[in-house]
Amino acid sequence: MGAPPVPAADDVRAGRPVLSLALASMMEKVHAHSGGVYLMAAGEPVLEMAVTAGLPRAFAAPWERVGLSAPIPVAEAVRGRRLVWVGGEEDMARRYPRIAVVLPYPFALAALPVATADTVYGAVYVTWPGSHPTVLSDREREALTSACRRLAVRLERAARENRALGAEPDLVAAPASEVAGTLGTVEASRMVARLPYGLVSLDLHGRVAFANAAAAELLGVKAGDLLGTQPWVSVPWLNDPMYEDRYRAALISQHVTSFVALKPPGDWLSFRMYPSTTGLTTRISRARAVAEMVGALPRADTAPVPRLVTISQVLSLSGALTEAAGVQDVVQLVADDVAPAVGSQALVVLGSRGGRLHVLGHRGYEDPQAVERFDGLPLAERTPGTHVLNTGVPAFFESRQQLDRLYPGRSDTPDGFAAWAYLPLIASGRPVGTCVLAYAEPHAFPADERAVLTSLGGLIAQALERALLYDAKNQLAHGLQAALLPHTLAPPAGIEAAARYLPAMHGMEIGGDFYDLVPTRPLAAAVIGDVQGHNVTAAGLMGQIRTGVRAFTTVGQAPEEVMRSTNRLLIDFGADLFASCLYLRLDPERGRAVMARAGHPPPLLRRPDGRVRVLDLAGGPLLGIDAEATYPTTEVALTPGSVLALYTDGLVESPGVDIEDALVDLGELLAENGDQPLDKLADTLVRHSAAAQERVDDVAVLLLRAQPDG
Question: 3-state DSSP call for residue 669?
């Protein structure tokens, strides 16, 4: 039978389903068993599914709308204006782990853009069962490419004539029957009824279209109650994702699929699914061998054997991996969730740096040196870790003998394990590392397990790529912050000083909080401030303000003049950021300090007798608002033994906490611990502050203690 013709313009005007007919024709020419057409969304860089054929749309539900930047074959086909071919289960797991974790079944896929020379209108994908060769033939390639070109011309003509094309009804086969026992002839129905095993027909949506009497008896549900339902919905003890997974696997792979299930209290049933492009025929019988094997075991010690990884587990793991921030978070998550799920007892995550192997983290090894000795190994060295990292091809070793045969040099470094899976971690098309899963006993790796492990490697790779970038940014942030803050404090004679800085727990962990101690003569100065924001701009502006304060102090300006000059400097920068600031001119010989404040939290003063008070200082507005602002000063007695606590608002402000209550708590903490050495006191204040523990903002603390003479 020939393929249906591609619709002409008149077909479009007549309301014929252009996309559906084009897709059906395309699938028939290349003998594909499912497919779909996407159209570009109006005004968005998004592909929207317009029609599917061959399989229920629910199978592709996660990809109803696909961003053009997504790591999905149809999006890649559009981005590259080329055909994208995925040759099978392992290829999918390695290149598109997001798809493999939802559809971990053997099938091949081709995705193509629907585009003219000037405009992209959408994309098409078609799939074949797992029996399809791993290479797309020239005939199939030409047929798909030509069909997409013709469809693009039709869409271009429709757009030129302002005829919008949108979603069309999906092409999915209807149930074979609506009545139990109807097989076409009376004799055929009698024949099926006499069979000693159950027969159930499922349509492509998994709904029961026919069930013979034996099937109803075995399942324990009336045939009439089964019709039109999905078995994992209407049969309570089949309500397990694993059984629906087997149905999906049979339809997508077009391979005969089997499983056994326990019908309470102790009957094991065998299910064998025979798929076609119109649905599945399922044979149900008693699994006597399984029942005898289970019956021979002591029931008290019997535990269900878990599957390697269920779809829900993998999706959960992928969600958890998105939350991992740094590299060690990824290593710990793999150790806590991935390794136990696949039966592994230990793991190593390897990366590369400067042409050498780098151990990013490991868990489960009694002797860490068994792993760490590989740190710094040249990538040219012949080891399984370097080979997988260099080639991007996974390696599975079912026993020590197998590993030693291929890598005899490794026998000199035993690690106590008996089987290994080396998974390449490939993200953004490049290897970022290798995940090594180790097993205490020899372990076989069948094809489906290898595919699952490879897809897990893809998920781990994406998390590791983000984590490496995060750690690099974090190191940059800390390095920049350290460069902008004083490395040491040099207080004048008669003054002891200590400081602490803690970055916020969110964002880049870099902000605009700063402090400084300027040892000018005859009078020294101290400053603490906070530039709004938590980014490089805030940090850079903070560095400029700190430098300006030092310069104005060095030339001998009075405190109020230093504040006015700094305010004008900030306005001249034109950064549209504000800053709070507290500036002190210290005179320990006369036992006093002169302070100027610009919208900054008030300091606390602890007297030698232990009493603490909040200093109500005169002040002006935040720096950077009013070029004509003035900043009056306040003189405060600084007797020997007294402690001044300067801080930024991150120490006292947190969601849901009244600022007055937070100041009272801080004052009590200072009163109780003010006699401690100053460094210990600084640690106490930041450790016991509720706001500092949550750290939604940066925290800076500068403590000054007046020392007795002599």
Answer: helix
Question: pLDDT at position 315, please?
Answer: 55
SS3 string, 603-621, reads CEEECCCCCEEECCCCCEC
Name every residue whose Cβ is closer than 8 Å to that of residue 419 and which is 6 or more positions away in sequence. Answer: 397, 398, 399, 400, 438, 439, 441, 442, 443
Per-residue tokens: 377:
């190994």
Identify which of 498, 490, 518 has the alpha carbon closest to the alpha carbon of residue 705. Answer: 498
Whether the bond between 265 and the residue before it is cis, its omega within 30 degrees of 0, is yes
CB-based contacts of 186: which residues, under 8 Å, 6+ apart?
none
The radius of gyration of the chain's CA atoms, rounded to the nearest angstrom, is 35
Alpha helices in 7-60 (DSSP H): 9-13, 18-30
Lookup result for tokens 């003509």: 157
- Compute the CA torsion angle 328, 329, 330, 335 (nearest 10 deg): 90
DSSP secondary structure code for residue 509 in this structure: S
Contact (Cβ atoms closer than 8 angstroms) between residue 634 and residue 617: yes
The answer to whether 38 touches 47, Cβ cutoff 8 Å, is yes
Interatomic CA distance for residues 704 and 516, integer angstroms: 12
Backbone angles phi, psi at 623, to 5 degrees: -70, 140
Residue type (1 letter), 152: A
Q: Residue 430, class by beta-carbon neighbours within 10 Å (0-12 exposed, 13-18 middle, 19+ buried)?
A: exposed
CA triple 151-152-153, angle to 5 deg: 90
- What are the mean pLDDT values of the chain's consecutive 10-residue runs (710 residues total)? 40 65 93 94 86 88 82 92 93 84 88 94 95 94 95 92 84 51 55 80 90 90 89 87 84 88 86 90 79 44 42 55 76 80 86 87 86 85 88 90 80 75 86 91 86 84 83 70 74 88 61 83 87 71 86 91 92 82 91 92 92 89 91 92 91 76 88 92 82 65 84
Sign of CA dihedral 331, 327, 451, 205: positive
Please list, in sequence order, all residues whose beta carbon lies within 8 angstroms of the beta carbon of residue 501, skipping any fewer than 6 positions away: 481, 485, 513, 515, 698, 699, 700, 701
C-alpha pair distances (Å), 430 with each of 325, 330, 352, 392: 20, 18, 12, 8
Structure letter (DSSP) for residue 383: -
Q: Among candidates 631, 537, 635, which has minimal Cα distance to 595?
A: 635
- Residues 6+ away with beta carbon under 8 Å from 176: 201, 203, 209, 210, 278, 279
- C-alpha 421/C-alpha 400 separation (Å) is 12
- Say how far apart CA 443 and CA 402 lie, in whole Å: 11
Partners of 423 in beta bridges: 435
- The closest alpha carbon to 360, from 369, 371, 370, 344, belongs to 371
Cβ of 307: how many Cβ atoms within 10 Å? 13
Q: At what angle do helices 678-688 and 659-673 cross, to 10 degrees?
A: 150
